[in-house]
Amino acid sequence: MLNQTEIKDKPLCENFEIKKNLNNALLIKEPFNHWTFEKVLPKNLLDKVLKLPIDPPVINTYSGKRETNNKTRIFFNSENCKKYECLEEIAEIFNSDKIGSTLSLISGNDLSKGKLRIEYTLDTGDFWLEPHLDIKQKMITFIIYLSSDTNDYTKDWGTTIYNKDLTLNSKIPYKQNTGFMFIPGQNTWHGIPRQYIFGVRRNLIINYVSSDWKSINELYKLS
């Protein structure tokens, strides 16, 4: 486990690299403002996450909603960050003022009072997410795709964006270490069409959430 001095000093160069890559975001305005990113994480951190000894949860039936299987979800909370060093490293980066202020400037949404919530998702088998809106307590949603893009199946793994009438608008390309961010609102419909996931669709879902977030066990730090 990193000691506190190492945790404080180690992300400095990583923060600079991440900030530089975040500032190269591409803004897409239809059907709602969203941003795409390239090379979000330093390769050493990406590799560490992919090597974690964490198996996909056993889920017999997907309902189209992640919250149906809350007991199987992997959050960057105190317990998991103590268990896995690289989760702590990533959480410290996104908990830093430098990265938080960068995302605030890009999105136009002040995240300084937000609390950090990160989930590591491992989707496999007969998976789908119904078209949905993220709840208002999420100040931003930032998804980082982690799985390798070396096989033909991953081309269908990207997040689908819907128009207000829930017709298909576009699909975010699924490519390793790219990102997709938006501010949840009344028209930010998105989801994953039903499909069979061969292999494991690995992602980080990063949220900064408001002070009234109730599931504090999902948060990185309360301070």
Main attributes of the structure:
alpha+beta, Jelly Rolls, 6 helices, 223 residues
Explain how this protein is built.
Helices cover 24% and strands 30% of the residues. It has 223 residues and is an alpha+beta fold. It has one domain: q2cbj1_9rhob like domain (Jelly Rolls), CATH 2.60.120.620. Strands 1, 2, 3, 4, 5, 6, 7, 8 and 9 form a 9-stranded antiparallel beta sheet that branches. Helix 2 packs parallel to helix 6. The N terminus is likely disordered.
Task: Summarize it.
By secondary structure, the chain is α+β, with helices and mostly antiparallel strands.
Beta-strand percentage range: 25-35%
Main structural class: alpha+beta
Rounded mean pLDDT score: 90
Order of helices and strands: HHEEHEHHHEEEEEE
How is the secondary structure organized here?
Layout: H1 4-9, H2 11-22, E1 26-28, E2 34-37, H3 43-50, E3 74-75, H4 78-83, H5 85-94, H6 97-107, E4 115-132, E5 138-145, E6 160-162, E7 168-171, E8 179-182, E9 190-209
Antiparallel strand pairs: 1-2, 2-8, 3-4, 4-9, 5-8, 5-9, 6-7, 6-9
Helix pairs in contact: 2-6
